[in-house]
Amino acid sequence: MNFFFFFFSPFLFFCFLTSSFTSCFAGNVTYDRRSLIIDGQRKLLISAAIHYPRSVPGMWPGLVQTAKEGGVDVIESYVFWNGHELSPGKYNFEGRYDLVKFVKIVQQAGMYMILRIGPFVAAEWNFGGVPVWLHYVPGTVFRTDNEPFKHYMQNFTTFIVNLMKQEKLFAPQGGPIILAQASASLNLDNFQLI
Ligand SMILES: *[C@@H]1O[C@H](CO)[C@@H](O)[C@H](O)[C@H]1NC(C)=O
Ligand SMILES: *[C@@H]1O[C@H](CO)[C@@H](O)[C@H](O)[C@H]1NC(C)=O
């Protein structure tokens, strides 16, 4: 498990579960140089990675619950582009790739979610999560300021953001996603963000 600490506040607030009701609802997520602030409260959050396609949907509630019982507040996962976009514009969200179902399971457990949309998966995953077909699009250079790469990355990223919005999964919509990340493990000195 990966642990990320948002750590700087003297005021520490935790999520408590009361009977079957969850109090981890986040409407307003902001931050300053000291911490994340959720609904006006500074938060110390512990996150753990559960990469949804590495197990089957039937295992997800149990894995999420185990993380919760271990003291985790936030589940984080990459979004696995090469499992979701099988060829340009042809999408797969079935079975182990049912991202919406996974995020809803996290929500039902009363936990937050960090969505690492990628595109790069720095975690022992084929081709770093980039679809192999993109390698054959003429002129493509991965993970650089390159037009074909940026075009397909933007297309996929937009698709995922729209899907999450449509399902009302972002915190301001009442969902569990408090943070979304584009571009994992890049040296930003050498990279022009889209
Ligand atoms: C969200 O929280 C911030 C800081 O706590 C506050 O300044 C802002 O007004 C809040 N926004 C809304 C829409 O409630
Ligand atoms: C992404 O590209 C596909 C075709 O490859 C197109 O149908 C779709 O509208 C594009 N989506 C976005 C969000 O630009």
From TrEMBL:
The keyword Signal applies. Residues 1-26 form the signal peptide. It comes from the Eukaryota. Its EC number is 3.2.1.23. InterPro entries: GH, Gly_Hdrlase_35_cat, Glycoside_Hdrlase_35. It holds the Pfam family Glyco_hydro_35. Keywords: Signal. Residues 35-182 form the Glycoside hydrolase 35 catalytic domain. It catalyses: Hydrolysis of terminal non-reducing beta-D-galactose residues in beta-D-galactosides. Belongs to the glycosyl hydrolase 35 family. PANTHER family: BETA-GALACTOSIDASE RELATED. This is beta-galactosidase. It comes from Hibiscus sabdariffa. The lineage of its organism: Eukaryota, Viridiplantae, Streptophyta, Embryophyta, Tracheophyta.
